[in-house]
Amino acid sequence: MTFWNCRLQDDTRGGRKAVLGGAADTASPPARRISLRDQAYETIKQQIVRCELRPGEAITVTDVANALNLGRTPVIQAIDRLAVDGLVEVMPRKGVVVSPVSMNDFVEIVEMRALNEGQAARWAAERASPVAVERMAANVEATWTAAKRGALEDMIDCDREFHRMLSGAARNAILTEFLSNLHDRSLRFWFLSLRAPDHNMRVCEQHAAIVESIRARNADAAEQAMRDHITAFSRNLTDQIGLN
């Protein structure tokens, strides 16, 4: 079953191109020089994650290239990467389509996150360096700050960075790579889930519990804290989209 219950921005300036162009115009200057392919990839991905490009919506290389003032080649390369992430699909005779969001996807993502991030938390408790633990703790403090300010985008960035840090602390490169792809496929679900202010505070508490278990080198507690965190994420999102 496909669902769509995300607040979309109104577009009165020329449809999809205006949405894409607006994101490029208001983005902060990058801290470092990135390739044109990466610029296209990040901009399109953020439009998909923030529900500004609708699931099932067709996009064309020409429209995107014109909106971003880029050539076709970096846009084609970006779309190839987005397809690997599961955010777009290349459909025969339809071109490029933003991937639908479905309950089947959601259930499978939750199952894989519980299994693999639970193991990552266990390994982090056994393997994380003291520096890695303190960086995760600092991230939790930044997440609290973002949650109290109601800064949704900062909250999402902190949340994603926390999970990246934790998978890195597990010290298994293959697991880290797998979880990175899984997180990219989770982005739209994260965006929907983190719109609930009360849930944001619970996320901070859950992240803190995970870090404290890792600091205490309690692998069982770390794995359970991560599983509890993912279960809460699942319940919150099903509440938001009205499936309970």
Automatic annotation (TrEMBL):
Keywords: DNA-binding, Transcription, Transcription regulation. Residues 34-101 form the HTH gntR-type domain. InterPro entries: GntR_C (IPR011711), TF_FadR/GntR_C (IPR008920), Tscrpt_reg_HTH_GntR (IPR000524), WH-like_DNA-bd_sf (IPR036388), WH_DNA-bd_sf (IPR036390). This is GntR family transcriptional regulator. It comes from Pararhodobacter zhoushanensis.
